[in-house]
Specification:
This protein is 51% helix and 13% strand. By secondary structure, it is an alpha/beta fold. Strand 5 (90-93), helix 4 (100-107) and strand 6 (112-116) form a beta-alpha-beta unit. The longest helix is centred in the C-terminal third of the chain and has 25 residues, at 246-270.
Length: 271
């Protein structure tokens, strides 16, 4: 399969790195289109030998075109690449908010797969939610699913609205976890640990409980009850979080991300 990634930013590089490391395709059949020459060095370090700045006839040679640009840039990109693409190609979009119909209309193509990965794809531990247009064949869909599996786990959904929901949960989710970790690290430093010690304590705590959770049949609330003892330290902390409705604030934050994904799609449609 000949693959072209359009966009050499964080997610474009994540996919490129994963494809190269997992021998998804021969290096001679893999290219990246990126207008920012400052990103060329990072792409070359990954193992990408074919990098070019402007769209041209080489675009038509790709079996799969990965759209890895910011959603705000899509309208301009569509006008630039439209003369060089064909309806036989499959387009995999990892742009937030922009729905399949908008991509089909802007590019005059039928075969579109829409996915939302996250940053952990860089180490093969990502989470992607994906769906496709009806014109994508089963073989093409399975092929792309195998590509996504090289970046981590994936979940197919038939309802496209769940892609925006997935954006809010797993796409943006790593930032929520990091925000919480940062606060715990800062608290640890204030309690007397060095910055390095605080990082070690926090990182291992988060990593350990996630791995432990995966080995049990308990729910999150069930494990919280197991960790908490009557009148103990954990109970005091959890009571404070409950009394201050931190759970409601977290759910509202996720909803804000979902709403923004919808707004990004609307902005692209109206341009």
């Amino acid at each position: 399969m000949k693959i072209l990634i359009i966009g050499g930013g964080n997610m474009g590089q994540s996919f490129a790195k994963s494809f190269v490391q997992n021998y998804i395709t021969d290096a001679s059949h893999f290219a990246v289109l990126e207008k920012d020459t400052n990103k060329f060095e990072a792409l070359k370090k990954i193992g990408i030998n074919h990098i070019y700045e402007q769209p041209d006839v080489r675009l038509a040679q790709a079996d799969l075109v990965v759209l890895a640009v910011k959603p705000q840039s899509f309208s301009d990109l569509a006008r630039q690449i439209k003369p060089y693409i064909s309806n036989e190609q499959v387009f995999l979009s990892i742009m937030a908010g922009i729905d399949i119909a908008t991509i089909q209309r802007a590019l005059s193509v039928d075969k579109v797969i829409r996915a939302m990965p996250n940053i952990a794809a860089q180490i093969g531990e990502g989470m992607s939610v994906f769906t496709s247009s009806d014109e994508v064949t089963r073989i093409e869909l399975v092929t792309v699913q195998n590509l996504l599996e090289s970046t981590g786990k994936n979940l197919y959904v038939s309802n496209e609205d769940l892609i925006d929901a997935g954006t809010a949960v797993s796409g943006s989710g790593p930032a929520y976890v990091l925000y919480f970790m940062q606060a715990v690290m800062q608290a640890a430093v204030e309690l007397g640990f060095s910055k390095k010690e605080a990082e070690m304590l926090t990182i291992q705590t988060f990593k350990g409980i996630v791995e432990y959770f995966q080995t049990t049949q308990d729910s999150c609330s069930g494990l919280i009850d197991k960790i908490s003892s009557k009148g103990g330290t954990t109970e005091a902390a959890i009571k404070y979080l409950i009394d201050n409705r931190i759970d409601k604030k977290i759910k509202t934050a996720v909803q804000k991300a979902y709403t923004r994904a919808k707004e990004l799609g609307a902005l692209s449609t109206n341009r």
